[in-house]
Amino acid sequence: xxxxxxxxxxxxxxxxxxxxxxxxxxxxxxxxxxxxxxxxxxxxxxxxxxxxxxxxxxxxxxxxxxxxxxxxxxxxxxxxxxxxxxxxxxxxxxxxxxxxxxxxxxxxxxxxxxxxxxxxxxxxxxxxxxxxxxxxxxxxxxxxxxxxxxxxxxxxxxxxxxxxxxxxxxxxxxxxxxxxxxxxxxxxxxxxxxxxxxxxxxxxxxxxxxxxxxxxxxxxxxx
Length: 223
Description:
Layout: H1 2-35, H2 40-43, E1 50-58, E2 68-78, E3 83-93, E4 101-112, E5 122-132, E6 137-140, E7 143-146, E8 149-155, E9 169-178, E10 181-190, E11 193-204, H3 218-221
Antiparallel strand pairs: 1-2, 1-11, 2-3, 3-4, 4-5, 5-6, 7-8, 8-9, 9-10, 10-11
């Protein structure tokens, strides 16, 4: 029986060490990713980086689950500076969405221009990918930037973004209002033309500094 206890204790210790090592590796990887220089194709959209408080409103005809939601979107650089990767998590919805989560990838991508007269070879453009916990998935290279406005048009989006509508295209737009403010909109091209599906405001969340010993109450300083 003692041998069994020793074996269990050794296993638990090994798992603890492995978890700590993985945590350290994630911290190192995260620090390396955030310090990497952005690809030239992404520098113009660096305003997207950060941690954002999101307040979203959706047109009721396009959603049978929620008309409004709030959450947090965190967008960080990754993949040696060749991608901005975002994670959205809902914190409140008008009606229950469950644990809604979405992932955004905005990546530098080589665009073949040989088919375009006078522009042989390849250049760096942008690709946008979105997937969420409701089964929506979109991928496009039709991404443009003008006047602090990022626009992506998705052909034949997959998933249930609209109820009872035949959507030909979807258009999403991020607009920089200031260093601490963005506006977001989603539109759908239906039989009646472009219609607004959702709007959202993005407000930058301030990073909380780690308290020093001077800031801590005396009882915590002694611990």
